[in-house]
UniProtKB/TrEMBL annotation:
SUPFAM superfamilies: (Trans)glycosidases, Glycosyl hydrolase domain. It is an enzyme of class 3 (hydrolase). It comes from Sphingomonas natans. Keywords: Carbohydrate metabolism, Glycosidase, Hydrolase, Signal. PANTHER family: ALPHA-L-ARABINOFURANOSIDASE C-RELATED, INTRACELLULAR EXO-ALPHA-L-ARABINOFURANOSIDASE 2. SMART domains: Alpha-L-AF_C. This is non-reducing end alpha-L-arabinofuranosidase.
């Protein structure tokens, strides 16, 4: 027996743009996120272009990844850009103190990263080093990347790239409350002002600086930053991970029970509360919403896969992760006036990854396919949606069964994203459409028999989008039956 929900989509009162930068990806020097997962070197047997593996680059191109955040994360506040330029063989080999204590060869540095962006067709979001760096080092890195003239530009040309690069986004440190220096909010605000002062680009160029924001519910951080530092920046970040059982214990990534499924959904819905409350603080200081909220780390964080290094944060990705992705992408729509960038953590082989690799093998995860389904959302206009959903719960974990969002793309086509978190029961949603043209509906669905269904190297197509036939459009009413544990994307024509 299907549960029932009702919704209204208001096409005649369009909302903000669903900024394509909400689909930003995060790539840190962590585990095989860079080395192995993206970079295999020019002499590898794995087919590559100037060192970056072709299979992974193609998969990212297919997703139209708009922006990549690099080199960290925690890694960024210990990163010294000069160690990553010049002849690769001569670069300093360091210890990656955050992530496994392994050696960091600096083989992928600024030039290689910019080449990766070209290959993928993405823009740069560089995180600068506030933690153990200096304003001079930061300023010189930005000048090295963006200036057409001067000694640093000549050095860049000598290293193989005459033309300056564009750096549209630049992070003033990362997690300054933690691995970025364990600062108090007041001190971090001052450091943000100081470092940001010296980040400059040539006349006519634009760089949007993003301040290191709060961890989860640290509302005081947002308050202090907004009050004291945001004149210096265009964005303020927020990090929130879905961590069932908490960071100490953590959930397995496969083979979990329904209670853990429900806990994961509930901890994901926390994003709604966080965006509402951080957003309200930002509204106080910036009612015009000049400063955007960049949720530049989000996603699931589980126990590492058996046999892998704890510091590599390598985890499997299942249908549960697909739901987490869909729910978050729907929540971002509701807050798109303030949330104009987000970055899922992380792109390859780390945490809630798009892609998993093992040597020459590669597989696209359920999360990848959700991102693929939501591609029409990039720069589309959000249509307000009112939703009344039944509850789904197991033990103490209770959430709305359904989450939903809607957009109208530039061609005028309306897309409706829906999730059903109930793993046992379908939900029939009756949607009244006002101001939405359309006479036909088609769609895609991601679901599977098991809550922890996944795509393996041997069976890569277990959790993939398939044609969805559970929707009917009848005049101004759309009726959709969402299968249990599913993500659905509808296209109205
Ligand atoms: O994504 C992994 C780590 O999580 C990042 O390096 C850090 O910013 C956060 O704590």
């Amino acid at each position: 027996e299907a549960l029932t929900a009702t919704a209204t989509i208001k096409g005649d009162t369009p909302g903000p743009i669903y900024d394509r930068h909400i689909f930003t990806q995060f790539a840190e020097h962590l585990g095989t996120g860079i080395y192995g997962g993206l970079w295999v070197g020019k002499n590898s047997k794995i087919p590559n272009t100037r060192g970056f593996r072709n299979d992974v680059v193609q998969a990212l191109r297919d997703l139209s990844v708009p922006t990549i955040r690099w080199p960290g994360g925690c890694f960024a506040d210990e990163y010294h850009w000069r160690e990553g330029i010049g002849p690769q063989a001569k670069r300093k080999v360091k210890i990656n103190t955050h992530w496994g204590g392994v050696t960091e060869p600096n083989t992928v540095g600024t030039h290689e990263f910019m080449d990766l962006l070209d290959q993928v067709g993405a823009e740069a979001y560089i995180s600068g080093n506030v933690g153990d760096g200096t304003p001079t080092e930061m300023a010189e890195w930005v000048e090295y990347m963006t200036s057409p003239s001067g000694t640093l530009a000549e050095e860049r040309a000598k290293n193989g790239h005459k033309a300056p690069w564009k750096v549209p986004y630049f992070g003033i440190g990362n997690e300054l409350w933690g691995c970025g220096g364990n600062m108090r909010a007041e001190y971090a605000a001052d450091e943000t002002r100081r470092f940001a002062t010296f980040v400059k680009v040539p006349y006519g160029e634009k760089i949007t600086k993003i301040a290191s924001g709060a961890n989860s519910e640290d509302y005081n951080w947002t308050e202090v930053m907004m009050q004291q530092a945001t004149k210096a920046v265009g964005g303020l970040s927020l990090h929130y991970y879905t961590v069932p059982k908490g960071f100490e214990k953590r959930s397995v990534s496969v083979g979990f029970d329904e209670t853990l499924w429900a806990e994961t959904m509930s901890r994901t819905w926390k994003m709604e509360e966080l965006l509402t409350k951080h957003g309200a603080i930002m509204d106080k200081y910036d009612p015009e919403k000049r400063v955007f909220l960049a949720v530049d780390e989000w996603g699931t964080w589980y126990e590492e896969d058996a046999g892998t290094h704890r510091g590599f944060l390598r985890q499997q990705n299942t249908l549960r992760d697909a739901l987490v992705a869909g729910i978050n992408l729907n929540i971002f729509a509701k807050h798109a006036d303030r949330v104009r960038m987000t970055a899922i953590a992380q792109m390859i082989d780390v945490l809630q990854a798009m892609i998993l690799t093992d040597g020459a093998k590669m597989v696209k995860t359920p999360t990848y396919y959700v991102f693929q389904m939501y591609k029409p959302y990039m720069d589309a206009t959000v249509l307000p949606i009112d939703l009344k959903s039944p509850w789904y719960g197991k033990d103490q974990w209770v959430v709305p069964a359904v989450s939903a969002s809607a957009v109208k793309d530039k061609a005028g086509q309306v897309h409706v994203g829906l999730t059903n978190a109930d793993p046992n029961r379908p939900v029939t949603v009756t949607v009244s459409l006002t101001g939405v043209a359309g006479t036909a509906v088609s769609g895609k669905v991601i679901t599977a028999n098991a809550m922890d269904a996944l795509n393996s190297f041997a069976q890569p197509s277990t959790v993939v989008p398939t044609a969805f036939t559970g929707a009917r459009l009848d005049g101004g009413t759309l009726t959709v039956t969402l299968p249990a544990k599913s993500v659905v994307m509808l296209d109205l024509k």
